[in-house]
Amino acid sequence: MAHQLWIGGEFVASASEETIGVINPYTEEVIDHVAAGNAADVESAVEAAQHAFSEWRWVPAVERADYLHEVARKLREAEDALARQLTLEGGKPLVENLDEVGWTAACFDYYAEIGRHSRGRVIPSIERSQLSLVLKEAYGVVACIVPWNYPLLLMGWKVAPALAAGNSVILKPSSVTPLSALMLAQAFDHLPPGTVNILTGSGEEVGDVLVAHPHVPVIAFTGSTAVGQHIASLAAPKMKKLHLELGGKDAFIVAEDADLDVAVPGVAWAALLNNGQVCTSTERIYVHECLYTEFTALITEYVQGLQMGDPLGPATDLGPMARAGYRAKVERQVAEAVERGARVLTGGRRPPDQPTGYFYEPTVLVEVNRGMEVMCQETFGPVLPITRFVDFDQAIALANDSPYGLGANLYTHNARYVKQFYERVRAGTLWVNDPLTDNDAGPFGGFGMSGLGRELGEEGLDEFRETKHLHWDFAMEPKEWWYPYEQYNRLR
Question: Which of 128, 190, 326, 341 is the most exposed place for a label (fewest CB within 10 A)?
Answer without folding.
Answer: 128
